[in-house]
Design goal:
The protein is α/β, with parallel strands linked by helices. Helices cover 48% and strands 18% of the residues. It folds into 2 domains: 77 residues; 204 residues, 3-Layer(aba) Sandwich (Rossmann fold). It is built from 12 helices and 10 strands. The structure holds S-adenosylmethionine. The site of S-adenosylmethionine (SAM) has 21 residues, from loops.
Length: 292
Amino acid sequence: MMLKAAETKTAKEDADFALLKSIIKTRLGFNCEYYKNSHFRRRIDVRLRATGSKSFGEYVQLLEKDPDECAVLLETLTVNVTNFFRNSEVYDIIEKEVLPSVIRSKGTGLNRSIKVWSAGCSIGVEAYSIAMLFHHILGNNIEKYNIIITGTDIDKASLLHARNGIYTDTEMKDVRPAFINRYFVREGNRYHINDELKKMTRFRSHDMISGPRMNGFDVIFCRNVTIYFEKELQEKLYMDFYNGLNDNGFFVMGKTETLIGPSKDLFNAYDAKERIYSKNHEVKTSPGWKNC
Ligand SMILES: C[S@@+](CC[C@H](N)C(=O)[O-])C[C@H]1O[C@@H](n2cnc3c(N)ncnc32)[C@H](O)[C@@H]1O
């Protein structure tokens, strides 16, 4: 008898969980099927605890009547934690080797266009970190280049934050003092990204799972995003990134992420420790950007 009651309870929970997933997909446009179940359950539990809901069923009822909770849930599911120059060791190689190599590859012609994609850009700090480095490396020569850094995300609130470009100490902790002075305008405890960097960046809504494929990039950053996805999807996305790169382009992933699937044999490890991969060339190039 007891066993029967427990089975009925589990079946009800499973049904409510499935209903919750379908509501999240249709209302929030967030396709949970592709995300690791463990990640998804942990994030839902955060909202269950915060709202005092005792079951998925109770939480579904709350979602049905409270549009604000839908917005908060999406924010919780997408995990927007980030900061400028996150894992600064990676940015050391980006600054000293990767960006100089990209700049050199553009030669000295008139059309020196450089395209970078920050996929899963959250509030934009990755895109702006890259913009600062280009600016710093090129100095006055920046005028000779058309550099566009495109940040994409599914979270609209994060994209708005990125476009506004206003940050707090939490995100600023790894920005060098010289960069703070050069690229931000401080107002009280808020730091505003300056117009020079804003001009180099675009932020737009794009779902890397279901959105159109993007290509023509010299560098693609997708860091701390695929970690939440199922393996099959990771494999597919890494191939999309491979195809989205120009010859000799670079792919940068998060420190806890690992290349898997067919792209593993196509990409060359440029710096495996820092998770930097290159599309065609194998050998590390020496910094020589001063000539560009
Ligand atoms: C932890 S943040 C990573 C931010 C930044 N790349 C970094 O490493 O600091 C993960 C971001 O991925 C976004 N994201 C999750 N699923 C996505 C998808 N299917 N398409 C585009 N962005 C997605 C989230 O909204 C969130 O802003």
